[in-house]
Amino acid sequence: MSKENSKSRKPIRELIQTKNAPNAVGTYSQAVSAGGFLYTSGQVGINPASGNIESSDTRSQCVQVLKNIRAILEAKNLSLVNIIKLTVYLKDLNDFADLNEVFKEFFGDTNFPARSTVEVAGLPLGARVEIDCIAIES
Whose CA is closest to 65, among 130, 6, 114, 10? Predict the structure, then answer.
């Protein structure tokens, strides 16, 4: 499709950007809204104020990641209860207990979204955890 034709068509997706979450460190958007769902890109524990990962432990990075996801949700007037599914990438699966503790803090004891967790060989910027999110917009 030519650029001219794509400009005249109504967009089927909306790119989401907030200063309250870290800027993308590559060629992607913080999130995309489409078809009644919000899809975030993978978030690592970057503090948006400093632009850096400020802690070396998985637990602290996980807290920052979830704060970043919450900020992106809030940019679309959504909250943690809108999350349907999270995919978690851990540098070390031995940190699974820390991940669960942080989730209890953020989601309470019963409001957990669906989740997949996998161990990976490496993550951007040397992060210990990365999480992406699918949320419903209604």
Answer: 130
Burial of 109 (0-12, 13-18, 19+ CB in 10 A): exposed
Question: How far apart are the C-alpha atoms of 48 and 8, rounded to whole Å?
Answer: 35
Q: Classify domain 12-136 by CATH number.
A: 3.30.1330.40
Residue 7 in tokens:
């400009």
Would you write out the chain's pLDDT as a tens digit for each of its 138 residues?
455 555 667 789 999 999 999 998 889 999 999 999 999 999 999 999 999 999 999 999 999 999 999 999 999 999 999 999 999 999 999 999 999 999 999 999 878 999 999 999 999 999 999 999 999 998
Write the CB contacts of 75 (distance below 8 Å, at least 6 apart in sequence). Answer: 16, 17, 18, 20, 21, 31
- So where are the chain's domains? 12-136
Best CA proximity match to 118, nearest among 86, 138, 93: 93
Identify the three-state secondary structure at position 43.
strand
Q: How many residues does the chain have?
A: 138
Residues linked to residue 47 through DSSP beta bridges, in sequence order: 52
